[in-house]
Amino acid sequence: MGDTSEEARAHRTLGGMLFGGMVAHLVGGAVRLGLPDALGEGEATAAELARALDARADTLERLLRALEAVDLVAETGPGRYALTPAGHLLRTDHPDSRAAIARFYTDALLLDSWRELPQSVRDGSVAFERVHGTSFFEHLDGHPDRAEMFHAAMADGTRGTARVLPDAYDFAPFSTVVDVGGGDGTLISAVLARHPHLAGVLFDAPGGAARAPAVLEKAGVADRCSVVAGDFFRSLPAGDVMLLKSIVHDWDDERAATILSRCREAVSDGGRLLLVEPMLPDGPGAAGPPVPFLSDLNMLVNTGGRERTRADFEALCARTGFALESVRTLPAPSGNTLVEAVPV
Question: Where are the alpha helices (DSSP H) in the chain?
């Protein structure tokens, strides 16, 4: 007989993985129903929530019990439920909301490509292009509803970095920051609000930058930040700091090198390149949290991009006129890596 406890752990581990997709859909479904917002800071029974959400009380009770099992709600009394700290993150009005991310990562837009993972592993092809007949970003250009979902998720995913980056990096020596692919301005707004001496440029494709003016205005920095629409494969506005969050991982090495080459042309002497990205550990068999590895495969099947190791970033910088100067992990709730490089 083998070690039954070890065997049981193996079964539990694999079982959790096989049911993982269902857990993701449980979370996404709760958000689409509006359940976290309906619970808010209070508590309610299934019957009370059913009236608010136009749902059946009996099936909603089943959903609540599943959400309790994954620690998103807690039973505060017989048949009464409230959100846990993790559950509160699914409220759309939470400052660190992940509601838009929950919608995005459980949408067919991404998941249809994941079903084609084996073929992408076999030949390196981009599954999204096989499934939809076009690239990911071209698809968004033709589907405004999905583009809106994507941009909302990116804003959600940037808030954690926006909270910590302004104090985690010394912007004092510089005068202008260019947020390349800066979307709705969540990150550059936080940087400028914390550092009044800075001027900013938010650069993105027209669809990506459309929501930026309102965000900049709300943050009180619109007078110090211009919004420029364009193509970062062609040219970029000049600045002291070229800031790119979650941009280069969307692209293969050739396309990523083109973007960084445009950054090298635009950055001032003595300026800096800042890349905020997940980072894979170096070396064969290197252990680490699963999320960067899963993100790496998500890039493979959906955009043709990849996550990178420190050595990968060093090589990418070297071929585009930069020298990698430092790598550090940003504090929670960001969890991303800050790669700093200098022009050479």
Answer: 4-18, 20-33, 35-39, 46-53, 57-69, 85-88, 99-105, 108-114, 117-123, 127-132, 136-142, 144-168, 186-194, 206-209, 212-219, 253-266, 290-302, 310-318
CA dihedral angle for residue 287, residue 291, residue 293, residue 295, rounded to 10 degrees:
-170
**pLDDT, tens digit (0-9, with 9 covering 90-100), for 152-185:** 999 999 999 999 999 999 999 999 999 999 999 9
Q: Count the neighbouring beta carbons within 10 Å of the beta carbon of residue 271.
A: 23
249 catalytic residue (yes or no): yes
2 pLDDT more than 60: no
Per-residue pLDDT averaged across 37-48, rounded? 98
Q: Which long-range contacts (CB under 8 A, 24 or more apart) does 16-24 make?
A: 23/70, 24/105, 24/106
pLDDT at position 1 over 80: no
Q: Kindly report, residue by residue over 265-277, the tens digit of the pLDDT.
A: 999 999 999 999 9
Q: Which residues, at least 6 apart from 293, have a Cβ–Cβ distance to it below 8 Å?
A: 280, 307
- pTM confidence score: 0.93
